Amino acid sequence: MIELVQGEGGVVALDREYVKYVEQLCKKNGILLIVDEVQTGIGRTGTLLCCEQYGIHPNVITLAKGLGAGLPIGAILMDELTENVFQPGQHGSTFGGNPVVCAGAIEVMNQVCDKKFLSDVRSKARYLNEQIISLRGVIEVSGLGLMIGISLEEGLNAQNIAKRCVENGLLILTAKKNLRILPPLNITLDEIDRGMSILRHALMSKK
Known about the structure:
Blueprint: E1 5-6, E2 12-13, H1 16-29, E3 34-36, H2 51-54, E4 60-63, E5 75-78, H3 99-112, H4 115-133, E6 138-144, E7 147-152, H5 158-167, E8 173-175, E9 178-181, H6 189-204
Parallel strand pairs: 3-4
Antiparallel strand pairs: 1-2, 4-5, 6-7, 7-9, 8-9
């Protein structure tokens, strides 16, 4: 089981050759390949599923978070090797199949599966990356699409910078020593510019 972009681990995208090797190793030895796309799936990295960018075919893909756009939902995708693992009634929960949540997920899929929507995500990701790497104090930008990690110069504390950003209206996370940005997929360029202005001042602040 692998996560193609390590979120909590610093927003590090796995090497493509390594991932292909893992897939081949699993197939050769009859091991199921499970890809965790809870964070990377549903357009977050610029394609519907992140594994598309790696050219792999997992046996199982796990989904949640982005699928419901704030509504609580989880799902799994299974191929022909795993499709019969669960029989009707074997995998249930009190609120499983909630009609309101499922209706929300259907609308999310209708929006995200639009080619222009995904193209816009990739375009905004490129723009955001260009803005971030130009900021004073930033040494590297990592991740894929709108799942972004920011490595800082020695002496800059990610926790302190994130706190200053939040105080000024920009919600930003940390991952190890890095800053972590996961903006809404429908973020506008104006909102990106406003966020970058807040981040720029947070990086320059000496407090």
